[in-house]
Amino acid sequence: MPNKAKMPEYIMTLTCKDSPGIVAGIAGALAASGCNIEESSQYGDPLAECFFMRVRFCVPETLTRDDVFGALVPLAKRFAMNWDLYRVGQKTRTIIMVSKFDHCLNDLLYRWQVGALPIEITRVVSNHDTCRDIVEHAGLEYTRIPVTAKSKAGAEKKLRNLIKKDGAELVVLARYMQILSDDLSRDLFGRIINIHHSFLPGFKGARPYHKAHARGVKLTGATAHYVTPELDEGPIIEQETDRVDHAMTVNDLITAGRDIERRVLSRAIKFHTEHRVLINGGKTVIFR
User: Fold this and answer.
1) Active site residue 232
2) Pairing relation of β-strands 277-280 and 283-286?
3) Which of 232, 242, 245, 259 is catalytic?
4) Cut 0.85: pTM above it
5) Domain boundary among 43, 64, 87
6) Of all helices (H) and strands (E), which one includes residue 144?
7) Residues 138 and 281 placed together within one structural domain of the fold
8) 54-94 residue pLDDT tens
């Protein structure tokens, strides 16, 4: 048998109507091509009658991506699959957006520098200059795009141009405090992740920690989700909470919350870039 350590690896993700024979068909098609399955996860949603699957497999060195893709096409057509094929180890080209709060940005820069996230940061975009020094110190391009009520359309046009220019596959809102237009949110759906400084649903909008403190909450948390035109209502990717007690001040809540935000956002990006997230209507299937 060939040395699997030297064989290229791919990940196939798929969504389709649930029916018998899908798993067997994929396993058979891969085996017939000489591929070896390393990891497989699947889920059938009984309410939506949808089937979700993620398969990681190694491929003989003699086969190209086109060869593997072509071997799976007949099966994909047979089951009317929404599917894709990704080369393992290929980093996701990513634009990070930030305003003034830099805790999530700093965390992502560190994880990127040590190789803990499979991303290639093409640039950081901001509506302020607050974070310029730390970004440029990391050797990355920093692009400031000011945003006002009158300039918002023009600012989003510039952002679209940068996404196209960079070939960015993912946009991360690392505490970017501007609401994107409905058109942009729709166009980037499934490719733009936001970190919300609250355990959704609840305490939407500005000053969530002040609202939470006033309500005497017993839990604080953060939510990473895909952006949609509906504010803070996109499919949730990851969440985390921590206990809160009566002696904690607003600043205590903010400190605890920011620690959670950076952890939740980095995990959400990791899940997304490892192709572990499949969108199921207004929610997600996560193959951990």
Assistant:
1) yes
2) antiparallel
3) 232
4) yes
5) 87
6) strand 142-144
7) yes
8) 999 999 999 999 999 999 999 999 999 999 999 999 999 99
